[in-house]
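User: Hey, my collaborator sent me this sequence without any context and asked if I could get a structure. I don't really work with proteins. Can you help?
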Amino acid sequence: MKRRIAAVSGCLILCAFLFSCAEKDTRLSVDKKGRTVVERYGQLQVIGPKLSAADGKPVQLRGISSYGLHFAGKYANEEVIKWLRDDWNMQVWRAAMYTSDGGYLFAPAVKSRVISSVDAAIKLGVYVIIDWHILHDNNPLANQDKAIAFFSEMAQKYGEYPNVIYEICNEPNGQDVTWQDAIKPYAEAVIPAIREYDRDNIIIVGTSTWSQDVDIAAEDPITGYDNIMYTLHFYAGTHGDYLREKTQRAIDKGLPLFVTECGTTQSSGGGGVFEEETLAWFSFLQKHGISWVNWSLTNNGEDSALLAYNADRTGKGGWTENELSQSGKFIRRVLRNEIRLK
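Assistant: No problem. I've predicted the 3D structure and written it out in structure-token form, which is a compact way to encode the shape of the chain:
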């Protein structure tokens, strides 16, 4: 009897170990067989509230966002993205193309940094978010025609590749910029422009109040299109239980969410690094299978910056521990599965 109990116990331990390894394997940028995340997951799709792989199984992507490409576009290259894939275990890269603040609307050549990001992601087998990064332009309707032209071009150029995800409005904000009157009508204009050339790839729609009011979007979601998700943004030093409660209401309504931007700091990008608060968020997201992207890859001295101040001025990757900020060291450990989430 003791031998039988020992055998059963040993089997349970082995099964638990194998399950743990299999679960961890899904969070790898390149698995033990050398397959990239895109090779494994293929054409992403939305099934119910879940981001899912081509085979219908739910997936959670985890990755890194660029800083504004017109400020820190030197990192939007194959060498850096490969380093993030192989050393940091990054599965998704976000190309944050500001529209205002000296960005695309003022210097359209910054689009080349988006193109270099997507080309590198396709070659390296990672997913890539093309981010129309509205911020101080507040209302997405203000430049709707330019957004339609931009995303039409991107969809024609990259619609055949499963790597691409479209984020059509980063952080709508302002008292008059509501879901019903501004953001949803904008999305309903931009989405068909993308779908004319790309019928499958994920489209992520921003929400009001800097992409925090996911509960409001859940009351009146966009209909008539497949593979639509909604943006949630948080900064762990500013947003805690209150925003998680709002998020839970959206989840309960079945809204598909993607955290395209989150930070370890306060929403200002400063205030220190809030590791425990960030882990509380990551545990919540893991529980619900919600993908996330951390802000951001720059060396500008902000607490949210992943590189130490003035480290790697040339944008070559291959950073040592000393070249990483506190936030960078922490996020790298999370992505490498060196910190266990509850």
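In plain terms: The domain at 43-335 is CATH 3.20.20.80 (TIM Barrel). You can pass these tokens on to your collaborator as they are.
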